[in-house]
Specification:
The chain is an alpha/beta fold. The protein has 5 domains: 217 residues, Rossmann fold; 183 residues, 3-Layer(aba) Sandwich (Rossmann fold), CATH 3.40.50; 71 residues, Arc Repressor Mutant, subunit A; 49 residues, no CATH class; 113 residues. The protein is built from 28 helices and 26 strands. The chain has a 7-stranded parallel β-sheet with strand order 3-4-2-5-6-1-7, sandwiched between helices. Strands 8-15-14-11-13-12 form a 6-stranded parallel β-sheet, with helices on both faces. It has a 5-stranded mixed β-sheet with strand order 19-18-22-21-20. Strand 18 and strand 19 form a beta hairpin. Helix 5 crosses helix 6, helix 15 crosses helix 17 and helix 25 crosses helix 28. The protein binds one DNA strand of 16 nucleotides through helix 8.
DNA sequence: GACCTGCTGCGGATTG
């Protein structure tokens, strides 16, 4: 306890908290705790606490918060903590339970699985600490709007857990709006405490936490020494498709998946690991292969699937296998295990396929190597065997080069910044309806002031806001009563009064998969499945025995064969500009990273040879058949913007990620096109967006007019300045 | 050419 006694921060805490720290057997406070305690106790500024998972962020916030609450008892909810996951709320509840009860501070959790009786109790006696989801908070505004003031009149702190998970998303904008509305109701500013993973650009996190007031937000970042990282990137080749005697294509017997599965099996068996795959179908495929390898060897299964379409029960089975220290267990998973759910120590991380981004790779790696040990990452990259007519993307070994570029940027501690400029009109619609429900009615002028002028939707122009109100009125969501106030229209009433209203995001219709009365999970309704069809789901093999379109259920029984269902893919993650630029540099360099296996080295050499053969260090576009490939080495947002710009000039384009393909064009025509673009101002983003086929991507988009949707698309998906700069760069002499 | 997240009130049956 010597460290604690010497610490100034420790002495500032309430004595009962000091005793609790003693009782935990802690020798000293962590650096972020030392730094955060005085800032939070002073309660004069907003604070961001940034550190990797399991570095004591929750305590850094709650030791001083509970200290302050214990000293100044007051009526109403004193601390609001908003968290993105029900599972995280339950984790946090368990961690704070003992401390809160020692201090006599009531602790409430509120989400969809919490019984209504607990919620009623809080509404009757608002007090203490409330941990809640954004959706449940929205329900509070809609269903108990007149009570919000009295519930939160004594609010001392607003905590946002996993701040990084909210930044740049619809849900994040919803949360900003909710915190702002709360401060409006109680007519006072409440200190905000954001708990975040370490981010590339802390200024964006500051601006997110306190829009318009980021300069005063204090940041506490962990200075804990950089963790050692052990890396291996393994290369695999997929043989070209063979034709059998009937001419049907079939995969070569030695598919790389089998090889990867055996390597995972021998390397990971006996320890606890996370294997990240890039899609749910791939998770299912490997979970099934690895389970069978265990079975073939006659040993207990050690491999468990985890993804968003598996039922809560199956996911909890996997989480329990990870937490169980008495036996090894490895999860094959998607992003579901990226966020900070408590799963204990993890020996290593595997990544199948190129990682989706630098930031998610950092999150994944942060899961491994607790307790001072090195973090271990193995990446498994498959490239196709080349043939004479192989596409250039295969010849360049893009998957492998992208993986190397990702690791480069990761080691430089760079990561993708979120995009803060989007209008988020869908969420604005939700918040307008919610405000009307909260107050019963609303005038247009204060709505503009509270949501846009001084609120979180500050990038809207006044005429855009008026356009939104007109759209909503035309679609029956709102109407003006005789005194000029906005009230809900018939359609608006129906939307707001359905429980589906509270989430800012959409979700697809799904069938439930049921085996012997137990729900295994769900799948989208678009899939074409037939009775007696075979299926891999939850890492096991099934036969479909019944499909009920009315009940939306699929009944299955255990079977011998099967394949993973085709989950409806969403949009791919955009590759960031910095990553593509780094890929270009890697192609031009000759250095070979030491973490590559021999086969990965050979693939890298092939990629570089082909890059040199096509002279891509000098040439910016080249003919392929009757098309031209343009290589701007820029991120996907700029590439998509360039594609739309060329389409506006009457050209047909397809984005290959690594290149932009101009159909039916010669090299000199491509040059002329770029010169034309360089000589003129680009059209506006909204003009370009009008050519996009489906602009209605988000929940409340169906109630907005086309021109607003085009504005929304342009601000969230396009980069005009970047596109113009890229055109000029493509024409620079080299 | 990917992934993920969330949700109320009420009616009716069952149990102590």
């Amino acid at each position: 306890m010597e460290g604690s006694q010497e610490s100034l921060a420790f002495r500032e805490l309430d004595q009962r908290i000091q005793r609790w720290i003693w009782s935990q057997g802690w020798n000293e406070l962590r650096d972020i705790q030392e730094a955060a305690i005085p800032l939070i106790l002073a309660a004069e500024t907003d604070v961001i606490i940034a550190a990797a998972t399991a570095r004591g962020k929750t305590e850094a916030a709650f030791l001083p918060i509970l200290s302050a609450l214990a000293r100044r008892p007051d009526a109403g909810v004193r601390t609001l903590c908003v968290s993105p996951l029900k599972a995280l709320i339950n984790d946090q509840f368990r961690r704070l339970e003992g401390l809160c009860s020692d201090l006599g501070i009531p602790l409430y959790r509120w989400h969809g699985d919490v019984p209504a009786s607990f919620k009623k109790k809080l509404l009757r006696h608002p007090e203490g600490v409330l941990v809640i989801t954004p959706e449940s908070l929205e329900a509070l505004f809609v269903l108990h709007g007149s009570q919000v003031g009295s519930l939160f009149e004594g609010l001392a702190y607003a905590v946002i857990d996993e701040l990084h998970a909210f930044i740049g998303t619809e849900r994040g904008r919803q949360l900003q709006s909710q915190l702002h509305r709360l401060e409006l109701v109680i007519a006072r500013r409440v200190p905000r405490i954001g708990l975040s993973a370490t981010l590339g650009d802390m200024n964006l996190a500051r601006e997110f936490l306190r829009p318009g007031g980021s300069a005063a937000v204090r940041c506490v970042e962990s200075s804990a020494s950089r963790q050692e990282v052990r890396l291996q990137v393994r290369g695999y080749r997929r043989a070209a498709e063979l034709k059998d005697q009937l001419g049907a294509a079939r995969e070569a017997a030695e598919a790389p998946e089998g090889e990867i599965a055996s390597h995972l099996f021998t390397t990971l068996r006996g320890t606890t690991n996370l294997v990240f795959a890039n899609s749910r179908a791939i998770v299912e495929q490997y979970a099934d292969r690895l389970r069978r390898l265990c079975k073939d060897l006659g040993v207990p299964n050690e491999f468990w699937p985890h993804h968003g379409n598996l039922s809560k029960g199956l996911r909890e089975e996997t989480e329990a296998a990870l937490k169980d220290r008495s036996r090894p267990g490895t999860a094959i998973c998607t992003t579901t295990l990226e966020l900070g759910i408590d799963i204990g120590a993890i020996a290593s991380i595997a990544q199948i396929g190129a990682p989706p981004s630098v930031s998610s790779t950092r999150q994944r790696l942060g899961r491994s190597g607790r307790g001072g040990g090195p973090a271990v990452l193995r990446a498994y990259i498959v490239e196709r065997e080349l043939q004479r007519d192989s596409p250039l993307g295969d010849a360049l070994r893009v998957q492998l080069i992208q993986t190397i570029a990702t690791i480069d940027l990761l080691l430089e501690r760079w990561c993708e910044p979120p995009l803060p400029v989007a209008l988020h009109l869908s969420t604005l619609v939700q918040q307008i309806l919610s405000l009307i429900a909260q107050h019963g009615a609303l005038r247009a002028a204060p709505a503009w002031r509270d949501l846009c002028e001084r609120g979180p939707f500050s990038s809207l122009r006044r005429e855009q806001f008026v356009g939104v109100l007109r759209s909503l009125s035309r679609h029956g969501l709102i109407q003006q009563d005789h005194s000029g106030e906005l009230v809900l229209g018939a359609v608006g009433e129906r939307l707001v009064n359905h429980y589906g209203f509270y989430a800012a995001f959409t979700s697809p219709d799904e069938y439930r998969i049921v085996a012997d009365g137990r729900v295994l999970g769900s799948m989208p309704v678009q899939i074409s499945l037939a009775v007696n069809g075979l299926l891999i789901f939850g890492g096991r093999r099934w036969r479909i025995v019944r499909i009920d379109p009315q009940q939306k259920t699929i009944d299955v029984q255990p079977a011998q064969g099967g394949r993973p269902p085709a989950f409806v893919p969403t949009e791919a993650p955009p590759v960031h500009d910095a990553l593509r630029r780094r890929m270009f540099e890697i192609f031009r360099e000759t250095a070979v990273p030491t973490y590559l296996t021999d086969r990965a080295m050979a693939l890298l050499a092939e990629g570089r040879d082909n890059f040199a053969r096509y002279r891509l260090a000098e040439v910016r576009w080249l003919a392929e058949g009757d098309a031209v490939l343009i290589f701007p080495w820029c991120g996907d947002r700029i590439l998509d913007t360039l594609g739309l710009w060329m389409r506006a000039l009457g050209r047909e384009t397809v984005s290959y990620g690594i290149a932009l393909c101009l159909a039916r064009t010669t090299e000199s025509e491509a040059g002329h096109l770029l010169e034309t673009m360089a000589a003129s101002e680009p059209p506006s983003g909204s003009e370009l967006a009008r050519a996009v086929a489906n602009l209605r991507r988000e929940k409340f988009h169906p109630y907005l007019d086309e021109d607003l949707l085009a504005d929304d698309y342009a601000t969230s998906r396009l980069d005009l300045a970047g596109a113009r700069e890229t055109v000029l760069r493509l024409l620079e002499p080299r």
